[in-house]
Write a structure and sequence with these properties.
Blueprint lengths: L5 H8 L3 E2 L4 E2 L6 E7 L2 E8 L7 H13 L6 E8 L16 E8 L7 H14 L4 E5 L7 H4 L18 E3 L2 E5 L14 H13 L6 E7 L6 H9 L4 E6 L3 H16 L4 E6 L4 E2 L6 E2 L6 H8 L4 E4 L4 H8 L4 H4 L4 H23 L10
Parallel strand pairs: 4-5, 6-10, 6-11, 7-9, 7-10, 11-12, 12-15
Antiparallel strand pairs: 1-2, 3-4, 8-9, 13-14
Helix pairs in contact: 3-11, 5-6
């Protein structure tokens, strides 16, 4: 019996296609450390994110095609992940250790944007990624209450930067950490922009796979500062289904497109209500408007999140639902959306092209 060769293994694995990147896992560089001992074959399958929604599918297919090689008796696959940095992100000196910046935005207030941002960030962290979350809503910071974080962050004497707080495995910073909860912020627009820049520049974020930025509603100074100061990997748009919210969503989408920020996808929050007693479904704010807007605009629709008292109660209690009820259907929705977001980030990294060099002759 002839021995198995490494090239045979690579040729077989070329049959396995990543459904998001539309390329085989060998050409994508996912296959590492092939070991062959007689008929025993082992290798590492390194994905672009620990939150990959198709990792089990890829593992199963990879094992199957290698097992079909004549002479192979056993196949072992080690699954790992390495989040890649967006090509342009590493050019910034403001956040040199942050690989990807994901902004969460909405056209108007009251759509559950902050609750969505917090649960998605924790879901990414629970998958194994290094995650930070920045509360950029200067006028109405809500992360201290939602994450049950109190106390002012400390400043490092060594680096001269503020150390972020830690909550549920994430690094966290909010303007709410630096002022009393009942003290209003009465600032003009330029001061808001300066505050957002400080929260980026003066914080020791360290090495992160994803920095989730919870933006204030609308299209104001905080959004402009963020897009001008740091290269955003992409933005998630959160909306409720009714027309009055979708009208403002269009403005937000157009703003981010004007400043050349990619739209990672659209989420419909408060999409429907399920009665906890009888299970009857009520579409209180209509239904499907965000999906239609995403399709019409050529954007990815990330999912529907229900209007649920459990989600609200846990957010108010400082224990987001993905932590408080990890096995609940609501948590499953957030995790599925987080996986889709991670896939979108990875897809754009592979699709992105370096800026062309400018040559003066």
């Amino acid at each position: 019996m002839s021995s198995v060769q490494e090239q045979q293994v690579l040729d077989a694995l070329q049959q396995v296609m990543d459904p998001d990147l539309h390329r085989n896992i060998v050409s994508l560089g996912f296959i590492k450390n092939i070991q062959i001992r007689g008929g025993d074959v082992s290798f590492t399958l390194e994905l672009t994110t620990p939150a990959c929604p198709v990792k089990e599918k890829l593992k199963t297919e990879a094992m199957a095609v290698v097992a079909a090689i004549p002479g192979v008796t056993t196949v072992q696959v080690q699954m790992t992940a390495r989040v890649r940095a967006a090509q342009h992100t590493m050019e910034t000196r403001l956040l040199p250790g942050v690989k990807n910046i994901i902004a969460v935005a909405s056209g108007k207030g009251g759509v559950g944007k902050s609750t969505t941002a917090v649960n998605l960030a924790i879901a990414l962290a629970q998958s194994g990624a290094a995650v930070g979350i920045l509360d950029a809503d200067i006028y109405g910071p809500s992360l201290p209450r939602m994450l049950n974080v109190t106390g002012k962050p400390t400043q490092s004497e060594e680096k001269g930067k503020v150390q972020p707080s830690i909550a549920y495995g994430m690094k966290v910073i909010s303007m709410g950490f630096f002022m009393d909860e009942e003290t209003p912020v009465v600032w003009r627009g330029p001061m808001v922009g300066m505050a957002v820049e400080q929260l980026l520049r003066d914080i020791d974020w360290g090495e992160l796979d994803y920095l989730v930025v919870d933006l204030p509603p609308g299209t104001g100074d905080a959004q402009l500062t963020l897009t001008q100061k740091v290269p955003i990997t992409g933005v998630i748009i959160v909306s409720t289904p009714q027309d009055v919210a979708l009208a403002d969503v269009k403005k937000a989408i157009n703003m981010f497109r004007k400043v050349d920020v990619a739209i990672l996808g659209v989420i419909e929050n408060m999409s429907y209500f399920l009665c906890p007693s009888c299970g009857h479904r009520s579409e209180i704010f209509s239904h499907g408007g965000a999906l239609r807007e995403a399709v019409a605009g050529g954007m990815v629709f990330l999912g529907h999140i229900p209007l649920d008292t459990t989600i609200c109660e846990n957010a108010d209690a400082g224990t987001p639902i993905v932590v408080a009820l990890p096995d609940s259907p609501q948590t499953a929705i957030y995790r599925k959306i987080a996986s889709k977001v991670a896939a979108q980030v990875a897809t754009r990294q592979f699709d992105s092209k370096p800026f062309p060099a400018i040559v003066v002759e």
